[in-house]
């Protein structure tokens, strides 16, 4: 059977002018709807705004930002724009710092979420004849149920394998003829390592052709490595629980930037310090406004994710803007000796060395009142028993990282398997510095 | 002309070396010589044993970062100055020795080493009538 190229052609092929007209219409509706939310009602009154204040997309700037702290302060239901009896699902983030955050969904929200994510998967070539294995945590983590419902809606046979128990995952992949897997990048790497242990050749013994990776910042180098290892195409997925979950932005087959669905969201990129917009092409913090949500619309939500808009049209024909891969989060940033560092910068360097494995750990420590960075990285295999060659390798890694982050780290090679293995989100940074 | 040596990459942490020796003990591998090069961050343990290929498999399956490497093994008379004589032949040809260790077994002096130019080293050994030691020779002397 021949399938069409677009999942939602009526939205995916809109011209910019049509897209912006739709955005304005939906923004106005959203703002009116938000007046049902105690939080937004108060916030608008405090700022002497009414829904009528928003007459153009440019007027969006008049609305104050919504922050994660606002979500915590209104915990659990203070941000809702519909009565609770209209809500059918709740997702909550872990509350490691203060109150957790809660996102409510109506049935319509869940349908629209599944639609957006099904659209993403269709875009990278998944079709009803594919077998989709979701190796992502379920429960409160939106990558579980989010992909489950979306893959079913698309029509794929869907295996809710969840994360962990890698040997069982591999049995599913081989026995069920899995063709596509969703996993966080560090877990995709883990799957491959276990394949090697069991003597499974992904190209010969499986039907895998597509991998969807997201939820963890990762470098282009890591993606290429995953593709090479598993013999698949790996596509970058972006989502966040505050925006439903996965399906906010996704790479198309060009693998050059993630299309953000502008019929669902209005995207702004702002300077995280001045909060003023930056031009397309410049990195800043992404701010999102939901314009297709019922239970809990968010206006100008500060995502803390740092990225930029890729200028220019995409050859795939979709005019929805493209985001560059996430540069990290403004709250993941390490400040060492006054320098701002993102772990992803270090990963980019490490992944260029064939001698190194995929696992690394950055430790920040205070010694003699100096803050130091140690990077432990696993050797792929013992390629030499010559100490001087290992030393040359260490020096070269150190030099390249210093060029990238301007701080000289202590690079320590460790045998494979020594660093903690992640079956969930990888812990890459350990901060043991004395806090004054 | 060369023999197999196990090279093991060790994390500088309590118990890592012991783990290697215990795995070899359980597999009933007989050690011939061992040496360790230590640095601040890690160590490289080098082992000659009676069945290097099997020992390699045992360690690999035990999750140890191990490689089999080729090293030169030559037999010298057990007399003062023989090692200096041998090494001077390599030095005069500009060959660097990356590492070297020696031991006495069955009354014979054995010199184990690795150089930065294996072809040239082989040539010098042959031209100077030095005696290569095979793995089987070593095992026979146990």
Q: Tell me the strand order in the biggest sheet of chain A.
A: 4-3-5-6-7-8-9-14-13
Total DSSP E strands of chain B:
7
Structural class of chain B: alpha+beta
Radius of gyration of chain B: 16 Å
The CATH superfamily of the largest domain in chain A turns out to be ANL, N-terminal domain
CATH topology of the largest domain in chain B: VC0802-like
Task: Please identify, by name, the CATH architecture of the largest domain in chain A.
Answer: 3-Layer(aba) Sandwich
* Average pLDDT rating of chain B: 90
- The quaternary structure here is heterodimer
Counting DSSP E segments of at least 2 residues, the number of strands of chain A comes to 20
The CATH class label of the largest domain in chain A is Alpha Beta
Give the helix level of chain A as a range of percent: 25-40%
Helix tally of chain A equals 12
Annotate the secondary structure layout.
The complex is a heterodimer of chains A (436) and B (142).
Chain A (H helix, E strand, L loop, with lengths): L8 H4 L3 H19 L3 H9 L21 H6 L13 E6 L9 E5 H17 L7 E4 L7 H13 L2 E3 L6 H10 L4 E4 L1 H14 L3 H4 L4 E5 L5 H11 L2 E7 L6 E6 L6 E3 L4 E6 L13 E7 L10 E7 L1 E2 L11 E2 L10 E3 L2 E3 L1 H8 L5 E12 L2 E10 L7 H19 L4 E5 L14 E3 L5
Parallel strand pairs in A: 3-4, 3-5, 5-6, 6-7, 17-20, 18-19
Antiparallel strand pairs in A: 1-2, 7-8, 8-9, 9-14, 10-11, 11-12, 13-14, 15-16, 17-18
Helix pairs in contact in A: 5-6, 7-8, 8-10, 11-12
Chain B lengths: L1 E10 L4 H11 L4 E8 L3 E8 L2 H10 L3 E12 L5 H11 L4 E9 L2 E8 L2 H10 L3 E2 L2 H7 L1
Antiparallel strand pairs in B: 1-3, 1-4, 2-3, 4-6, 4-7, 5-6
